[in-house]
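Morning run. Coffee first, then this:
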Amino acid sequence: MKSKNVSYKESVSWLFGLQKYGIKFGLSKTANLLKAFGNPHRNRRYIHIAGTNGKGSVGAMLESILMQTGLKVGFYTSPHLVSFTERFRINRELITKDQAASIISEIYEITSPKEPPTFFELTTAMTLLYFFRKDVDISIIEVGMGGRLDATNVIDPMLSIITNIGLDHQHFLGDTIIDIAKEKGGIIKKEVDLVTAVNQPPVVKLFESLCKKKGAPFWRVGKHARYRRLPSGLLGYYGLQDRFTNLTLGLKGRFQHRNAALALLAVEILKRKGISISDEAIQLGLADPLWPGRLEEVSSDPTIILDGAHNPSAMRSIAQTIGNDFHFEKLILLLGIMEDKDISNIFREIFPLADKIIYTRPTYYRAANPQYLMDVAKKFGKGGEVHFPLSKAIERARDLADKKDLILITGSLFTVGEAKSYFDPIHYPREDI
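And here it is:
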C-alpha cells in the first residue's frame, strides 16, 4: 500500500489483509503503536466493557445517556454490521472514510512488515488516536475478545464493566465458565470500580477476590441494584440511591432490562466520580439508544426481525423474547452462522420455536457451509432448505411466509449486516472491500 494520498478502499483492504495473521493476544504491539504517536490514550476518561453478551447494548445505553448530559462521547465497538466506519463513532457520528484512510496510512508508515500488528490491534490503536484528536470527553471501549490480553486493555479506565459470562470463543478463552471469567476479569484494574451483572456464584466469588486483591470497588446487579420488568414492559430500577419505577427502553427484548439495570448502576458510579447526570438524561437516554441489528424489525406483513445472536446464551435470550413477546402463527427461521461457533447448542435453543428453517451464509470467509448447518440440524430431527446467497434465502423466506408469520434472521452479526444492506441499501450500502 502506498502511504500518500491513499484511498479508503485501498487502506481498508490493506487493513483487512492483516486478518491473515489471525488473532494474537497481547498488549505490546498495540502499546508500541500508540507510543509512536506519543501515547494519546494516556490521561483520558474511559469506560471499559467486557462480557460474553450485551456489551454493545450496555455501551449504546451509556452512550445515549451521556450524550443527553452534553458530553462528547466516543464509542468503539466490533464487529461492524456493514461499514468498517461503524466501529468508531463520536456522538453517533461515524468516522468519515477520509479520516479512516488518513489514520490507517499514518499507522501503516510506522508498522514493521516483518512484525505487523493484527487487524484488531491496529483498529484499537486507530480508535484511541482518533478519539484523542477529536478530544472526546469520555470514551466507551468494548473489548474485542476476552479481556486480559485483549488489545483494548492498554487503557486505564475510570470504570470497568463486565456484562455476563457464558460459553463462547472457548478455543481462545478456555473450556469452562471460570476459565472464561478469569480472562474477562483481566480488565479489572487497581482501585478502578467494577460493575457487573454476573450471577453464577463461582464467577461472583472470583470477581470479588480479584477486586479485593486490586482494591477495586465491586458493584453487582442483584446485590447493590435490583430491577423489575413491569407487565407494561417498562423497567423498575432500585439502585444505590436512584429509584425509577417506569423507565422506557428503546431496545427490544426482555434481556435488555438486565442490560439497562447494569447501565444504570454504572451511571450511579459515574455520578460518584463527579459526572453530572440528571434523571431526565437517564430517561431520555434509555429510551433512544442507537444499536441496530438487535431484535430490529425491518419489515412488516410479514414481520421480519434481525438479531445478531451468535452463541447459545444469546440465542436462549432471543428465543425467550420471541416466544413470550411476539405473536405469530409460524416462525420461519433463517440461519447463517460462523463455522467456529457452538452450532449444535445454538440450534438447541431456537429450534423448538421454528416451524420452517432456511440455512444460508453471509459473504464472509468464516461462515459455515449451509449444507453443513442442515446436516447438523438432522441430529435434532429438523429438516429445512438451503439457499444462498443471503438475498435468495430472504426471498425464499418471504415466499414461505403468510401475513401473520414471523421471519427471524439470526446466527451472526455478519448475517445481520448483509441483511441490513438487503433491506436498506441506501443507508447501509455494502462496501466493496
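The mean pLDDT is 93. Good start to the day.
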